[in-house]
Write a structure and sequence with these properties.
2 domains, alpha+beta, Rossmann fold, 6-stranded mixed sheet
Length: 370
């Protein structure tokens, strides 16, 4: 299965209508507060919950069914979201397509209606359509074949990484059982066993992560990843070595920016990345030098897999090409998303960087007062 080719959204939160927004291998979304970036990313969080049988739990935790329709249920009785995929075979091969619709029940839940297709002719095929409280599509993995199986395998791997919580009690600073290494969690809860597994089974990727961390944290030498026996469980935490001392450094010795960069480097340099990686505001708490290195990691990762990044950092924006940028805007109470065209800004870019053009609102993505 190829990457996401386009996404269509009707009636989801601030997004009233978005038809076939094309997504490339690298997509950097910028926009002012409230423009709709978080709502766009929440769709990927929702797909993750659907693929793990936690759709209704996700709905309830995020305000209930009434919190999702654009301008409320009266104006938007049904939400529809669709994904078109590229084909691995050839550009002219049929484009697999998955679509689901959501409608509210009296019990503050959402009913799902789903369709998938192995072709795209302007209308979806109807090989599959069920109405249920949880995703019927993701419940029947063993029965899916052909394009449906490819769609399932692709979507079920999507991961949203959000490393904002780096406080003293953040999951990434705590110990986790050594067996929890299959997939790096979205909040890096299991980063210690994940790194331990990489050191044992993927030494090249592990060393690449260590080298990247050293560029940002010069006094960092290596991870220790001490395994501790806790009753019947063996747990590991993010212990590490500092240059010039044998003293075992603990997770609490890492600053917020340092541990956040460790998580970002691990997510971007993992040996078998998700089919689509989504990262929300990765620049938070990072030194400008670290942002330069982060951008290089993002670009390198996008060669291997699809990457979607939401940012508000002009400095991070400076590191990319204008064709990589999607601008989120709020116009007349609704969110719009548009990929930039290099020809429109060619003359400006002779004298200014992308970040400067965005700061000056030449790239129209600033705050809009309605």
């Amino acid at each position: 299965m190829g990457r996401i080719k386009s996404i269509s959204i009707d009636g989801f939160k601030s997004i009233k209508e978005l038809k076939y927004l094309e997504l490339e291998k690298l997509n950097v979304i910028v926009g002012a507060n409230g423009a709709g970036k978080s709502n766009f990313i929440q769709i990927f969080r929702m797909l993750d919950a659907m693929s793990h049988g936690r759709f209704q739990e996700f709905i309830l935790k995020n305000g209930g069914a009434d919190a999702f329709p654009f301008c409320g249920l009266k104006e938007t009785p049904k939400i529809t979201i669709g994904f078109q995929f590229t084909s691995d075979d050839s550009p002219s091969a049929p484009s697999p397509f998955y679509e689901f619709s959501m409608s509210s029940t009296d019990a503050e839940q959402m009913m799902l209606s789903e369709k998938y297709s192995g072709y795209q002719t302007g209308l979806l095929g109807d090989e599959f359509e069920r109405v249920s409280l949880e995703s019927a599509f993701f419940r029947q993995k063993k029965k899916l074949t052909g394009f449906a199986s490819l769609i399932y395998n692709s979507i079920s791997q999507w991961t949203v990484y959000h490393f904002h919580d780096t406080g003293s009690s953040a999951p990434m600073r705590r110990s986790e059982i050594v067996e929890d290494f299959e997939k790096l969690d979205g909040n890096a809860r299991n980063i210690a066993p994940f790194l331990l597994h990489l050191r044992q089974e993927y030494p090249k990727n592990y060393e690449d992560i260590v080298k990247a961390v050293r560029l940002v944290i010069p006094f960092f030498e290596d991870f220790r990843l001490d395994v501790l026996k806790m009753g019947e469980a063996e747990k590991v935490k993010l212990t590490w070595k500092q240059k010039g001392t044998e003293y075992p450094m603990q997770p609490y010795h890492l600053s917020d920016g340092s541990i956040r960069f460790i998580c970002l480097a691990t997510a971007l340099l993992q040996p078998v990345p998700p089919t689509t990686i989504v990262i929300d505001e990765p620049e938070l708490g990072l030194h400008p030098e670290a942002i330069h290195i982060l951008a290089e990691l993002i670009k390198a990762t996008s060669i291997k897999t699809q990457v979607i990044v939401a940012t508000q950092s002009p400095l991070l924006l400076d590191q990319f090409s204008i064709e990589d940028i999607i601008v989120a805007r709020r116009q007349n109470g609704t969110s719009t998303f548009e990929r930039l065209n290099a020809e429109d800004y060619a003359q400006w870019l002779e004298d200014y960087t992308l970040g400067e053009l965005w700061t000056k609102n030449v790239i129209d993505g600033g705050t809009v007062h309605e």
